[in-house]
Write a structure and sequence with these properties.
Distance between the termini: 78 Å
Largest sheet: 4 strands, antiparallel
Helix content: 40-55%
Oligomer: single chain
Number of domains: 1
Shape: elongated
Strand content: 5-15%
Length: 165
Amino acid sequence: MRIQTPRIRQTGFTLIELVVVITILSVLAAIALPRFAALQTEARMAKMNGALASIKAGAALAHSIQLAKGLAHNTAVTMEGPANNVVMNNGYPTAALASIGRAAGLVDDAGAAIPGYVLASTATVFTVTPDSTHPNCSVTYTVPNGTTTFSPTYSNVNVTAANCQ
């Protein structure tokens, strides 16, 4: 009687195939990583331009509410939401977080910045940055003074690839 032993067939990749795959992946990684870094910078710049658009829309909406109701230039307006009073100065929101920040939707009802933004305010300038590691990538809102400027000034001059990378 003859005993047959089953043939074991080995499967897998050869060393040459593995080296080729690793080489291809290395080349793709070398090409993709710099492009991915550039995408993060572009995304941060788009985020800041979106914040500026929100500030512009909030200021225009608060100003139009004040005009539609026939209120005085320094009278607070009521906007939507539970914490809805927006303090005005010369017909536009002040630079306070609870004023232009709330009108733009960048501040929650408790008066804190929404996650993803760092907000700063002086008496006349409201500044938004994307995070604490990119302080030079910023947009600003400056309230009108009523003597030389009668509408707010918006700026995104700091939103550049150099400042936002």
